[in-house]
Specification:
This protein is mostly beta strands and about 850 residues long.
Amino acid sequence: MQMPRKLYRVSSLTPGSLLLVFRNWFGLAAILLGAIITLHLAVTPTQAQEPVVPLPRNPSWVSGEILDAQTPASLCNTWGDLDGDGDLDMVAGHVPFRGLLILLNQGLDAQNNLIMVSQLLPTTGWFTSSCALGDLDRDGDLDLVVGKAYGQDQIFANNGLTDDGWLNLEQVWIEEPTQANVTSQVALGDIDGDGYLDLVISGKDCYCRSSNGNVADTLYRNDTQAQGRIAFTPLVTFPQESTLDLAFGDVDRDGALELAVIVERNRRGDRSLRLFENNNGAIETTPGLDEAVSGATALAWGDVDNNGFLDLAIGQELDYNSIYRNRSGQLQTNINAIWRSSERGNTSDLAWGDVDNDGDLDLAVGDRNKGTKIYLNDGNELQREAVWESAITNSSAVRLAWVDVDGDGDLDLTQSATDSAVMIYLNSGGVLPTTTMLTSPDKSTNTFALAWGDMDNDGQPELATGTLQNSQGNYTAPYPWMNAWNGAANVIYRLDGDTMQPVWQSDSISATTSLAWGDVNGDGYLDLAVGNRPEGSWNGKTLTPNGFNEIYLSQAGTLAPAPAFRLGQGNEATTKVAFGDVDGDGDLDLAVGNHMLLANYDETGAKAPDKIYLNHNGTFQEPPDWVSSEANFTVDLAWGDLDGDGDLDLVTGAARGRYDTTPDNKISVYENIDGQLPVTATYTFPSDNFYSLALGDVDGDGDLDLAVGANGSANKIYRNEGGGFLFNPVWTSDDADLKSLVAWGDVNGDGWLDLAAGSSPRFGGVTPSKVYLNQRGILSEAAAWVSDQPARTTSVAWSDANGDGLLDLALGNSSPNSNEAQVDQLFINQGLAEPLTLSNPAVTLNVNQTTPPLAPANFYAVPDIRDEGVIPI
């Protein structure tokens, strides 16, 4: 099913796109647009998407208050716009000796941190056991129903805000003392269709002397007149059995709410699921469905298979959770359950919500003394294995809710638990959701370089590809600086529909390892720098010294087929070229990272120095204007203003050489002082198994941090503090892929940079590429997205490939030998579908229409009653 698309802004920093940061300094917008991203071509559509749960395993926000540890659980986790400011506030639960905790949502601060302000409401009785929000008097704001343990239930009218900005909640109703004095649940729903919310209160037997012996559930009719004083009259009293959970739902889609209840029939713990049908606006007292369900503890309505009818999830203790199918308005029995969890749980609560914005409902399960789990819905079928589990172990009881807390268009997971703080897991948005994968035709060349740039200034970027040709059929060349690489023509492609059409090919046959776009002569068109290495074959001992780096100039939007400049000595294995205005004169200079000097296959390969060629009125020439004093096995470099002084510093990363040499595995930083770089690094620090780097502001503090891809160990992030990098990483991934190439990009449009990593094995085989999501300045240790068509990836880049405002992910791939064909890949980001929540929420008037799913307040509680449509609570 094609889901509606939601556009997000593009915000990214990659080694190429770092120039965007500096365009205010030297006004080269066209140059920087071209240097923003590197990518590769795509032709044949297929589908590829690994299941994604874009939530951190540790909570994004934690309350300062601890909820009560009483039994029954003193939990609410009820949401609605209480203060009328357009975002959702939370009624959390009871805080011992202080009252009912209400958290007023103040939105996000300048650093995108969630701000929740606590207000405590004094209530009667021992403690609060449950809550519900709804506009009971139809005055336009949300009133509060409070269920009590060992006390009388209460209703508080919402009278707006006090002069001090606090909620003005007035008790206007209290339950008769003869009713059940231990309440397990309260719920609101318009039973009779009169436009007013009715109330059901369930009783629970505590098997203790504090109970008054009445455990009957009671349905109250709302007799409030419009904007009058709230009044309720008992309407139906159910049998004297202890209720564990209940929920309203329109089972048969007739516009009237039925009531599902889990009851405990006796002290032996025998339990039943009962469904009380709604007959012309009146709830029957004899259940239409009465089925023994051993160990049932919780229930939740949700249309799991998208057939338009509500299915019922049942949580159990010491047993498997299950889902009852709804067939055209008839709830099936447990014998015909359409789903069972793969493991036994000890479930306290369930909640449906579309966490990955793919258009179907996923299920969150809160287990006692375990972590909270999420089961993803894949093609209208819930997976039996949980794909996400919180790092925090729950206590004895949990209450869950899906809420768009931060108003960013996706559902966050909120949790109240006994003897615990309130926890909120903020959703960072889906990663490449409903992704279409496009691939290149089969090819024998190896893509080690990608660069997007708008070559002809028409607003659509072209794609430059840099390749190597493996010269041996029986040899695996895993690194671009090793031997047995031949040259190939570099090609530029332009997207035409779903096909990449070649629009330029170089005359030069080069063994290319790196590309960079930049307007070197100030004519307003992008030129192309090409980093090369010597080529050769095992058939001869001497390498061809043709590894000259090249610059192709644009001729009014089309590159000349022959390079205008050839730089270097021809025997250097260049691994990176990058443009940046090092001397602040307004034009782009060229940095060249060199790995080793290559002349003969039998030589071990001496380290090569890095170089900078200054731009002299649009020309470059030998000798270089800057040469590092120390030669290293450089494999990557990037420009960036690390210390915020307005000029570009240079970061290089050195790795291993040939097998019989000692690896460098270090980062070198050259700090720019008044337009000049020192030839000796300002400082260096080790980084084990170094392979790639990327600069980007991961934590939103305004300076550039350093991501490092590793070769056989965890990827890392080094934080920038005070203009320099901390030598110990502040983040490491929980994997250890080989030859990891990293690139920053804001894939989900939340304003925080996410990290892509592509990798390839040492010799044979393939590995998947990954994306690590940024949770408001903290990168997830586990990859949130993993490609399900692994490859030998040798280049990675983000770009808005199709001009829709969304970052897509391109992977340039290689083959292990010259006899094996392979393809490059492009994962198209189609944005987030509008996330689903409960297909049939708690309150229904005329069920023909539904409210928009993510109106900030209306999603969970409605301050006004509509004449038609669904009112979600």
